[in-house]
């Protein structure tokens, strides 16, 4: 009697009862479609849906605020590094 090998498929399983992923297997997964992403938590694979428009809008505003803050912080840091002591306006 000949033993038939079952073909290996590259199907992704989100059930921890079927498969738990290693980090190497996680990085080898194909990119999900529709801007979703995968997260690996203790070997279990989770699909995270893409953010909707309010989240994207808030994200853009936070990025813009962070850029302004870092630009101002850079100026303060330049003042601190040139004197070697905290900057105090006179």
Task: List the keywords.
90 residues; alpha+beta; 2 domains; two-stranded antiparallel sheet
Q: In what range is the share of β-strand residues?
A: 5-15%
General form:
elongated
Q: What sequence of helices (H) and strands (E) makes up the elements?
A: HEEH
Head-to-tail CA distance between termini:
93 Å
Helix content: 40-55%
Extended strand count = 2
Low-pLDDT residue spans:
none
User: Averaged pLDDT, please?
Assistant: 76
How many domains in all?
Answer: 2
The SS-based structural class is alpha+beta
Question: What profile does the largest beta sheet have?
Answer: 2 strands, antiparallel
Main β-sheet, spatial strand arrangement: 1-2
Q: What can you see in these coordinates?
A:
This protein is an alpha+beta fold and 90 residues long. The protein folds into two domains: 16-50, no CATH class; 58-90. The chain contains two helices and two strands. The chain has helices at 23-28, 53-83; strands at residues 37-41, 44-48.
